[in-house]
């Protein structure tokens, strides 16, 4: 097994209460990192924090809505208050609203819905990156991962325009952050997952997931472990020369 050198590091994982975020949080905890689980779902955040503690690391659950900058600033203040620093940010919280299992089209989308998705997926990533980067710049060390999506890399008919736009914008944000923060010893990369088994995709009719499967060369949906393994590498110093990159983790369904 690779030694990722993450023992004692402090990691904030947004949307860490379930799904991909939980998977990354527990993988980080197994590598010895202390974790702060930020989520709007209090019970789920607590549950992940307890599971992380069982790995022998410090863990804190914080209820925070990433689309609210005051709550994000408090999240980072509480992290510093408890652990003294923040080494790793996993900007993972995201939403992909559907109506009766189908996407909401542009012509039927109301402005509130557009703003909610952009607010969580894009503004939330910016608020969290900004608040953590302020600490990381002082430390001269940091690792940030932004969660994009296959839908941000190419056209997808499954999520709505707000989701596609937000996930493409996260890639631009990643490059901007990577360029600005590189002189301070901070690496910023994005992960673009393909179809990953999670609560988010269980809301979609099974025929659609079947259709997806036919387009995935490795012939399976992705798992939380596929994403967590990528994240472990990117936040380790093994990936110290990688910044501003978007890593496609999609079983070959999009090859760029
Ligand atoms: N599952 C997939 O196939 C897939 C594919 C590509 C990208 N992604 C991205 O990966 C990330 C995680 O997705 P997932 O499948 O685990 O989804 P999920 O819905 O299972 O988990 C998302 C988590 O984020 C939390 N969250 C939502 N809004 C929040 C907010 N405003 N503030 C704080 N927390 C909030 C939720 O409570 C939940 O715990 C998302 O950014 C998603 O867009 C997922």
Give an overview of the whole structure.
By secondary structure, the chain is of the alpha/beta class. The protein has a single domain (10-248), classed as Rossmann fold (3-Layer(aba) Sandwich), CATH 3.40.50.720. It has eight helices and seven strands, in the order E-H-E-H-E-H-E-H-E-H-E-H-H-H-E. It has helices at 19-30, 42-53, 69-83, 111-139, 161-181, 199-202, 206-214, 224-235, and strands spanning 10-14, 34-39, 59-63, 88-91, 142-147, 186-193, 246-249. A seven-stranded parallel sheet has the order 3-2-1-4-5-6-7, with helices on both faces. Helix 5 links the parallel strand 5 (142-147) and strand 6. Helix 4 (111-139) packs parallel to helix 5 (161-181). Nicotinamide-adenine-dinucleotide (NAD) binds at residues 14-15, 17-21, 39-41, 44, 65-67, 92-96, 120, 124, 147, 149-150, 193, 195-196, 198-201.
Task: Record keyword descriptors for this entry.
Rossmann fold, single chain, seven-stranded parallel β-sheet, 256 residues, alpha/beta, binds nicotinamide-adenine-dinucleotide
């Amino acid at each position: 097994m690779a030694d990722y050198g993450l023992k004692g590091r402090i990691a904030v994982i947004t949307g860490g209460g379930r799904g991909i975020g939980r998977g990354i949080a527990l993988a980080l905890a197994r590598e010895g990192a202390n974790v702060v689980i930020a989520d709007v779902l209090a019970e789920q955040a607590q549950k992940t924090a307890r599971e992380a503690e069982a790995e022998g690391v410090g863990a804190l659950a914080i209820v925070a809505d990433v689309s609210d900058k005051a709550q994000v600033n408090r999240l980072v203040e509480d992290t510093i208050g408890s652990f003294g620093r923040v080494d790793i940010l996993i900007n993972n919280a995201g939403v992909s609203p559907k109506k009766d299992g189908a996407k909401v089209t542009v012509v039927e989308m109301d402005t509130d819905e557009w703003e909610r998705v952009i607010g969580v997926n894009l503004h939330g990533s910016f608020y969290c990156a900004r608040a953590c980067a302020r600490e990381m710049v002082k430390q001269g060390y940091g690792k940030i991962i932004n969660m994009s999506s296959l839908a941000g890399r190419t056209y997808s008919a499954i999520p709505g325009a707000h989701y596609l736009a937000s996930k493409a914008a996260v890639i631009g944000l990643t490059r901007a952050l990577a360029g600005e923060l590189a002189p301070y010893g901070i690496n910023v990369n994005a992960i673009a997952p393909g179809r990953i088994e999670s609560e988010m995709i269980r809301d979609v009719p099974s025929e659609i997931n079947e259709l997806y499967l036919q387009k995935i060369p490795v012939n399976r949906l992705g798992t939380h472990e596929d994403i967590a393994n990528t994240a472990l590498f990117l936040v380790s110093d093994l990936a110290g020369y990688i910044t501003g990159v978007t890593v496609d983790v999609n079983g070959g369904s999009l090859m760029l």
